[in-house]
Amino acid sequence: MLSTANYLKAQLASGETVIGLMSTDHAWPFLVEVCQTGGLDYLVIDCEHGDFSDELVSHICQIGRLANFPVLVRTISCEISVVRRTIDLGPCGILVPNVESTEQLDQVRDAILMPPRGRRRPGGMGNYWLDDFQYETWKTKFEDHFIVIPQIESQAGVDNVDAIAAHPLVTALGLGPYDLSADLGCCWAPEDGRFVAALDRIKAAADAVDKKVWAGCDAAALRAKGYTFLWVGTTTTVLTSAITQIVRQVNEADTETPEKPRTPPPA
User: Fold this and answer.
1) Theoretical Cys-Cys bridge with 117: which of 113, 184, 190, 191, CB 3.0 to 4.6 Å?
2) R_g of the chain computed on alpha carbons
3) What pLDDT was estimated at residue 1?
4) Secondary structure (3-state) at 151
5) Quick one: how many helices (H) and strands (E) in the chain?
6) What is the largest CA-CA distance in the chain?
């Protein structure tokens, strides 16, 4: 059961292209199987902007656990009670929005790790990752493999990105491109030099400590720039794009079909 986080980490370490989906506005338990069948590598449930209940999130994490498919959750903040509650729902990792300092990551660490290394009080669905509740089991089979991705979404985060990337808790750095561009004063202008320079600095910081950068939504363009940890969009944008493509194909096929000759009336 513990192989979902390990599996995702192994993929990242190998340099393979790792592709996932962000679920911000629509999520349901069967979505795990849809992602897995479709060839994706992971799913993120967005609890920062989504309006999902704890019950729904815990069920989705449970399906991911049973299907051996990585399900991560984006938290509302790095506050200890928020992170601790999120982990109790049973994901194999978290995305933490708008991280600007290593002090925030220390706080996240305290929420993840059991005493004496942290302050976590475990419970809920997250307990089902383990066969027993001895401290050494928590440490070696859960805590040491848990995935943490801090998102860089401000100039302060960019200024401190080298230290953030090097923090031992961090699995990969995350981009928050829209919020980052807004904080830089170029919302939404992805070709702006300030934004491009910030992205280059974030990637350089990750490369320097042999970690990946989680990025999206234009996965193909990002892959061409050397990014390998990608997300292809939200559930809604992917579904809308697929429907649009199908409708376009049908309409194009209809216009390309030659008109059938009319059958002459009987004599």
Assistant:
1) 113
2) 22
3) 45
4) strand
5) 12, 8
6) 98
What the chain holds in terms of domains, given with CATH numbers, is 3-256 (3.20.20.60)
> What pLDDT does residue 259 have?
63
If the chain, 267 residues long, is cut into consecutive pieces of 10 residues, what is the mean pLDDT of each piece? 84 96 96 98 98 97 96 97 97 98 98 96 93 94 96 98 98 97 96 96 98 92 95 96 95 74 59
Burial letters for 148-172: b for 16+ Cβ neighbours within 10 Å, e otherwise?
bbbbbbbeebbebbeebbebebbbb
Task: Give the pLDDT confidence score for residue 167 in this predicted structure.
Answer: 98
Q: Is the dihedral of CA 82, 92, 216, 229 positive or negative?
A: positive
Model confidence pTM above 0.90: yes
Amino acid 64 reads G
pLDDT recorded at residue 254:
78
Provide DSSP, 195-257: HHHHHHHHHHHHHHTT--EEE-S-HHHHHHTT--EEEEEEHHHHHHHHHHHHHHHHHHHHHHS
Contact (Cβ atoms closer than 8 angstroms) between residue 222 and residue 216: yes
**Which SS3 state, helix, strand or coil, does residue 172 take?**
coil
Residue 258: its pLDDT value, please?
63
Can you read off the two tokens belonging to residue 127?
């307990």
User: 182 with 209: CB under 8 angstroms?
Assistant: no
Q: Is 210 left (phi over 0), alpha (psi -120 to 50) or beta?
A: left
**Backbone φ, ψ for residue 224 (5° rounding):** -65, -25
